Every structure is written in structure tokens, then in C-alpha cells.
């Protein structure tokens, strides 16, 4: 009798998690956590700021650096990669050059539509939610190394077909392994 109860309790604590086939872009997966990377690409971005900063950039398409995404218990964190290849455990990360991110990479999800789960199937929804939200404010002092600052970089990149200039990224003393474990830079 007790053994059946314990088995039932263990099953209920594990939830109804099912096995998933992990694609190459997935870097780590836990019960309520998933980490993946996206290669450099071009994406449309939306800016909405009470001081009217970056209003001319709203709705434009920009080159993006390769990124590492981490969802854990409904929180999204993003870091940038200085190379356009799948990172390894010891790969060092960089500050993701976006508004609405705190110093630990956490996304302020004000207008973002967030999926309920951290699954392989939800990855496109997390990415779409991030890019379709309004970038409204800077949460940290310095996001990039560019002579004209944040607005200068994105104004220069607006509607350009060239790659994102990775030399403008700010490197961090944080590896992919540390990011996966939730350790701060």
C-alpha cells in the first residue's frame, strides 16, 4: 500500500513531462528550463519610448547577433555570442544589445506575449514574443561599444543587409555553463 502511494506521489511531483526530441539549437533542458541558441539573422524590431528615442527605428528590420536564450520558470534571459556558431560549455557570452534587458540578461516582459511553458515546441513563441514586443527603455548603462551609442548603432544598422558588427558587443566574464546554471556574470 505504501509503495503504491509513494510511486503515485513521485509521478505527481514529476508532472506530466513527456520526452522531447531535442533539435541542434537546444543547448540545455531541465524540468521548467530550456536554453537554446539562434544564429545571426535579420529581424523586425519595434520601439516605443515616452521620450521619443528611436522612434525612427520602429518597425525596421535589423541584423541580429547570434543569441543564447534561457527560459526558467517563466523568466526569459538573453545573451549575445561573438561568433555565429553553436556555443560550447566554455564559450564566453556578451551583453545582448537590446533595450528591456537587465544586467543579468533578464527581459522586462511588459508588452511581451509569453508562452506558458519552457518546451522545444514553445521556442518559436518565445522568440516571436520577444521581437514583437515594444522595446521601451534601457535597463542598464551601457549595452554596446559604438561611438554614437545605442541609437547610433541601430540607426546605422537599419534596413542593412550586412551582419551585425560583433566588435560592438560588450564581452562578459560569463560562460555558457554559468548562464545555464543561472549564475550572474
Which strand order do you get reading across the main beta sheet?
1-2-6-7-8-10
Shape: globular
How many β-strands, per DSSP?
10
**Which residues form runs of ≥5 with pLDDT under 50?**
none
Which structural category fits the helices and strands? alpha+beta
Distance between the amino and carboxyl termini: 49 Å
Mean pLDDT equals 87
Count of helical stretches = 4
Largest sheet composition: 6 strands, antiparallel
Radius of gyration: 18 Å
Q: What is the succession of H and E elements?
A: HEEEEEEEEHEHEH
Count the domains.
1
Strand coverage percent: 15-25%
Helix content: 10-25%
List keywords for this structure.
185 residues, alpha+beta, 4 helices
Summary, kept brief:
The chain is α+β, with helices and mostly antiparallel strands and 185 residues long. Helix content is 20%, strand content 23%.
How would you describe this structure to a colleague?
It is a single chain. This protein is α+β, with helices and mostly antiparallel strands and 185 residues long. It has one domain. The chain contains four helices and ten strands; from the N terminus they run αββββββββαβαβα. It has helices spanning 2-14, 123-132, 149-157, 176-180, and strands at residues 26-29, 33-38, 41-44, 46-47, 61-64, 67-72, 75-80, 92-95, 134-135, 171-175. The strands form three sheets. Strands 1-2-6-7-8-10 form a six-stranded antiparallel β-sheet. A hairpin with a 2-residue loop joins β6 and β7 (75-80). The longest helix has 13 residues, at 2-14. It is globular and about 65 Å long. The protein starts with a helix and ends in a 5-residue tail after the last helix. 26% of the residues are buried. The model has no long low-confidence stretch (mean pLDDT 87).
